[in-house]
Write a structure and sequence with these properties.
By secondary structure, the protein is of the alpha/beta class. It contains 32 helices and 27 strands. Strands 2, 5, 8, 9, 12, 13, 14, 15, 19 and 20 form a ten-stranded mixed sheet that branches. The longest helix has 30 residues, at 51-80. The protein binds ligand 26Q. Ligand 26Q is lined by residues 136-139, 142, 287, 289-291, 293-294, 299, 376-377, 382, 384, 456, 485, 673-677, 695.
């Protein structure tokens, strides 16, 4: 793919054309390479090889091609020495690599043909690859989309993360309940990864700190600690059609010393076993919590483990080329994906002071110019607060540094506010301190020690500034900025929806692949009858594909002519899957009472994983599957409603689901969903949004027009206003609305299960038993408005031309929501990187 190249960096956002490099695909060579790989890896012929072995052979053949460009790119970075961004994240929800790499190498069709000639189906080969599910949901998938955009735009970037032995659990539905099954994604080996033992680092935990005073300053040293060796594995991130290949570096843990087999000293042996166990535990499994903080010691170990290794490597790499560590921030920036990687701040301070002997002031100058923080939530229960006892025991030197950051920050608050009339400075300190009430508040540290704080959608950033982080915004207004999320159209349209991608290209050319706003040229086709029919036909074929998937996986038959109404996302009370299923129960009641009513057939599709310990979330899954069982098996409604719960929602089946959706359910309680990114994937695939004015829905509606979406419910201001006045009284609604009362009673009267199973859900909405607040997510409050919006969906769908028009306009107006735009804004407004262009000689 690459020939010999020269390099040039260009100013950010400038006009220099990126030389398009297409893989020079040699079909015969590729076919020989696949056959050769099957032979050398497995001692088999193609006919004897298992499907998994064939996948491995194909993947290795592709990797060989990627490696050329990977080396070229890294050589170019080495030579040009551009500023780099390190995207630090506990999660990278990459999904499968093979198809994505082929798409970005512009080799998908060629490889498909070559495999055809070998009698192989590329789709089936792709299906053999396990998802790299190293993430929970939105935050992790965002990191993956960002890496795709960084490579495609030609920006020098590293992703830094953890090589979990077990990623996000596989979800099985047994007897209607979620069962978590371990995801042993590495069993067959990962053909795309490269182990790099030459870059291993040592990470220290526990022990105590000694101080030595010499030449008028203190020297700190951690003693009596336990060490873990961090070994990096590199994964290639292929840019689209530009020959650039960036790196995602994920760290594995190993014991520092291996067993001394000749050592029968009991203490030594014990120590070796302990170190082995410590190392194994750290990277064993991804915590499956989404938007919920769990103060687990192992989680903090994971955080420090990959951050210490990544920061050490960033510093070492910088020092290989430069001699003045005081200018580190000119060549390096760290983007912290939520607070999870925030120990990067004291870790960088530690290295600068304890290993490079900078003064506090010098180290602070560098650190605060290096670190930037992205906030992904306003939900109080998701904020990380570590108990001092745990934090200081595990990271004694790091804790000292955090204490000093806190001490100095409190002095700053005091200096700024102690003489301001009307300001209670003690109150400010109580609210803003990094260490308070026995806890270390990671978000406060990330704001105080960074140069940028960003929210992930306009509304979210405004709420941060006006409510959650108001005091910090007042103190550091220049640090706050918005970066509305985006998604990569290359995975979620070009790869996930081949039919629509081709249709778009046939109508407006292929520029949209790297310049999504060009897709707006489709607007003229929104009212074109032929285009409408073609569009609806493609949607139908994608619905047939999903119906087939559902039949295979769920054994449920669904009608592709019905409205596909889809809610796929993590299960959380604030996302209100409960509102959706209660409405289904209501519709079913209507239909039972009035079998001849005018009703357009509807398939309600859900997909969601619940955190393993989240009772109400898991019960909601059981409610959905129970309602599905009753409704799907009731012949009296003639199949007018079907309810499907898709097992194990993940990146791979998401591509099939988005392509087939008519209606995109984005129904979070206003103010709670920071952005959402699924909403964008649906829009790009021509689904209409049924949603609240929350997160990025606000901006989606702004782009496509309210007439092409279905908006309902309380506004974020109304929600926040209720919250500030002690909530609202759902009992009033229950008492006055017959329909709602009937549905709620069905939760506890045995309609869908024995009477007590769903009692906790009933209680969460009404709470007749305790003094806890009821319906904290305003489900009953928004119910009527939601039901009305759903009625409008049905009316709109009956007008096929009108629906097609709106759907095409959704595709056409999705340009803003590419992660290419988001990344360009990070580059221009936060990171200030230069593009690297590979030029053919
Ligand atoms: C924290 C501490 C201990 C264990 C787990 C966690 C943890 C893990 C994952 C906390 C939060 C998360 C994930 C949060 C997340 O995915 N947030 C979503 O981020 C998206 C990208 O910005 C937004 O679009 C979504 O609105 C937001 O919910």
């Amino acid at each position: 793919m690459a020939t010999s190249t020269s390099v040039a960096t260009t100013a950010a956002a400038n006009t220099a054309a990126v030389t398009t490099k297409k893989i020079r695909f040699d079909k015969e060579l590729f076919k020989r390479s696949v056959l050769y790989n099957v032979k050398t890896l497995y001692r088999r012929t193609l006919e004897e090889a298992t499907p998994q072995q064939i996948f491995q052979a194909v993947a290795y053949a592709i990797k060989d091609q990627i490696v050329e460009c990977w080396m070229e790119t890294q050589k170019a970075y080495e030579k040009e020495d551009p500023k780099m961004v390190y995207y630090m994240s506990m999660e990278f929800l990459m999904g499968r690599a093979l198809g994505n790499n082929l798409i970005n190498m512009q080799g998908y069709d060629d490889v498909k043909d070559a495999l055809d000639e070998l009698g192989l189906d590329l789709n089936l080969v792709e299906d053999q690859e396990p998802d790299a599910a190293l993430g929970n949901g939105g935050l992790g998938r965002l990191a993956a989309c960002f890496l795709d955009s960084l490579a495609t735009l030609g920006y020098p970037a590293y992703g830094c993360g953890i090589r979990y032995r077990y990623g996000m659990f596989k979800q099985e539905i047994r007897d209607g309940f979620q069962v978590e099954v371990p995801d042993n994604w590495l069993v067959d080996g990962n053909p795309f990864e490269l182990r790099r033992p030459e870059y291993a680092k040592t990470v220290k935990f526990g022990g105590y700190v000694t101080v030595r005073h010499e030449n008028g300053r203190n020297f700190f040293s951690q003693e009596g600690y336990q060490s873990v060796k961090a070994i990096p594995f590199d994964l290639p991130i292929v840019g689209y059609g530009n020959g650039i290949v960036n790196t995602l570096r994920i760290w594995d843990a190993e014991a520092v010393e291996c067993f001394q087999l000749d050592s029968f000293d009991k203490g030594e042996y014990q120590k070796a076993v302990e170190q082995q166990n410590l190392a194994r535990n750290i990277v064993e499994v991804l915590y499956p919590n989404d938007n919920h903080y769990a103060g687990k010691e192992l989680r903090l170990k994971q955080q420090y483990f990959f951050i210490s290794a990544s920061v050490q490597e960033a510093v070492a790499k910088y020092m290989r080329k430069h001699d003045d560590i005081r200018k580190f921030h000119e060549k390096v920036t760290f983007q912290l994906n939520d607070t999870h990687p925030t120990v990067a701040i004291p870790e960088l301070m530690r290295i600068l002071m304890d290993e490079y002997y900078l003064t506090w002031e010098e180290a602070w100058e560098v650190t605060t110019k290096t670190c930037a923080y992205t906030n992904h939530t306003i939900m109080a229960e998701a904020l990380e607060k570590w108990p001092i006892e745990l934090f200081s025991r595990l990271l004694p030197r790091i804790y000292q540094i955090v204490e000093e950051i806190n001490r100095r920050f409190i002095n700053d608050i005091y200096a700024k506010y102690s003489n301001v009339p009307g300001v209670n400075v003690q109150e400010k300190i109580r609210k803003m301190a990094i260490i308070y009430d026995g806890q270390v508040k990671m978000a406060h540290m990330a704001i105080v020690a960074g140069y940028s704080v960003n929210g992930v959608a306009r509304l979210h950033t405004e709420i941060l500034k006006k409510q959650e982080l108001k005091d910090f915004y007042e103190m550091f207004p220049e640090r706050f900025n918005n970066k509305t999320n985006g998604i990569t159209q290359r995975r979620f349209l070009l790869h996930g929806n081949l039919l629509l991608a081709k249709w778009v290209t046939d109508h407006v050319g292929s520029e949209w692949i790297t310049d999504l706003p060009q897709i707006a040229r489709l607007k003229v086709y929104a009212t074109d009858e032929k285009a409408q029919q073609e569009f609806m036909n493609i949607k139908y074929q994608n619905k047939v594909r999903l119906a087939k998937y559902i039949l295979e996986h769920n054994g449920i038959e669904v009608d592709p002519r019905s409205i596909f109404d889809v809610q796929v996302k993590r299960l959380h009370e604030y996302k209100r899957q409960l509102l959706n299923i209660l409405h289904v129960m209501y519709l079913y009641n209507e239909l039972k009472e009035n079998p001849d009513m005018d009703f357009f057939p509807r398939t309600f599709i859900f997909g969601a994983k619940a955190a393993a310990g989240y009772r109400n979330a898991k019960l909601t899954i059981k409610l959905i599957t129970s309602v599905a069982d009753v409704i799907n098996n009731d012949p009296s409604i003639n199949g007018k409603i079907k309810v499907v719960f898709i097992e194990n929602y993940n990146v791979s089946n998401a591509e099939i689901i988005f392509a087939a959706a008519d209606v995109s359910e984005q129904i979070s309680t206003a103010s709670k969903e920071a952005s959402g990114t699924g909403n964008m994937k649906f829009m790009l695939n021509g689904a209409l949004t049924l949603g609240t004015m929350d997160g990025a829905n606000v901006e989606i509606v702004e782009e496509v027009g309210e007439e092409n979406a279905f908006i309902f419910g309380l506004s974020s201001d109304e929600v926040i206003n209720y919250e500030n006045h002690g909530g609202y009284n759902p009992m009033e609604i229950f008492n006055n609305d017959q329909d709602i009362r009937k549905v709620l009673m069905q939760l506890i009267n045995g309609t869908y299960s024995h009477t007590e199973l769903f009692r906790p859900l009933y209680n969460s909405l009404l709470n007749t038993q305790s003094t806890d607040k009821a319906d904290t997510y305003f489900i009953l409050k928004d119910f009527k408005s939601y039901a009305e919006a759903q009625k409008k969906v049905e009316q709109a769908y009956k007008n096929e031309a009108g629906w097609a028009k709106s759907a095409i306009l959704n595709v056409a107006c999705s340009g803003k929501f590419t992660s290419d735009r988001t990344i360009q804004q990070y580059v221009d407004e936060i990171w200030h990187l230069d593009k690297v262009v590979l030029k053919k000689n």
